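Hi V.,

Quick status before I head out on leave. The structure for the redesign project is tokenized and pasted below; the design run finished overnight.
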């Protein structure tokens, strides 16, 4: 499906949803220093061809402007004429869409996702035991154990992509970049938001629990 075959209505719906999520997360302080990026996929999906709307690079995400988003293809290249530049991290969105065919990906930098990624860097994953919110990932076992993958944070984004590919676990809708932030995804914006909120709750919980165990 070419970009021109995707209806205007679907594109506008994606932009409206991105605007709402952007405002909500900005109000929570989740875009410190213009960090973070959000995307929603539009049109049909095959691993070889897809399109998505993504936040433009370097914008203040607490503001709403006509230059906040652009559409890109599966290689992260703009799908139509624009002066806007997709975030450098768009390539990570491309790889997550290619691997999952998901509908939305949200990426934020928070103090807790940074702390937890460094704390558990040696084991390359955050272990989580029996926290109720694991159910947000559709994992319903009592006392479920999950490991949330952590990958390297290189300045050269294309170097991160193969680590995302190998750390990807279809059961866990998120990957953490070391001392950087989390990428969380879902079938649509609603689910991606639910997953992101569950991850952030879990990171704070695990971090505080580790402190308690140390008597801190
Ligand atoms: Zn980032």
């Amino acid at each position: 499906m070419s970009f021109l075959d995707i209806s205007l209505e679907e594109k506008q719906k994606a932009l409206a949803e991105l605007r709402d999520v952007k405002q909500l997360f900005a109000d929570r302080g989740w875009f410190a220093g213009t960090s973070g990026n959000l995307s929603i996929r539009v049109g049909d999906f095959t691993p070889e061809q897809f399109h998505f709307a993504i936040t433009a690079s370097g914008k203040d995400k607490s503001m709403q402007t006509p230059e906040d988003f652009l559409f890109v293809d599966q290689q992260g290249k703009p799908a139509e004429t624009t002066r806007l530049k997709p975030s450098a991290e768009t390539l990570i969105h491309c790889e997550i869409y290619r691997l999952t065919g998901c509908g939305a990906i949200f990426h934020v930098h928070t103090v807790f996702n940074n702390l937890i990624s460094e704390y558990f860097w040696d084991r390359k994953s955050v272990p989580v035991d029996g926290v109720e919110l694991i159910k947000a990932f559709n994992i319903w076992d009592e006392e479920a154990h999950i490991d949330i993958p952590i990958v390297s944070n290189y300045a050269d984004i294309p170097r991160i992509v193969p680590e995302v590919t190998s750390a990807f676990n279809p059961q866990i809708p998120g990957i953490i970049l070391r001392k950087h932030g989390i990428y969380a995804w879902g079938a649509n914006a609603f689910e991606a938001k639910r997953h992101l909120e569950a991850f952030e709750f879990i990171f704070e919980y695990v971090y505080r629990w580790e402190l308690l165990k140390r008597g801190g």
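Above is the designed sequence. Strands lie at 37-46, 49-55, 69-73, 104-108, 125-129, 145-151, 174-177, 181-186.

G. will cover questions while I'm gone.

Best,
W.
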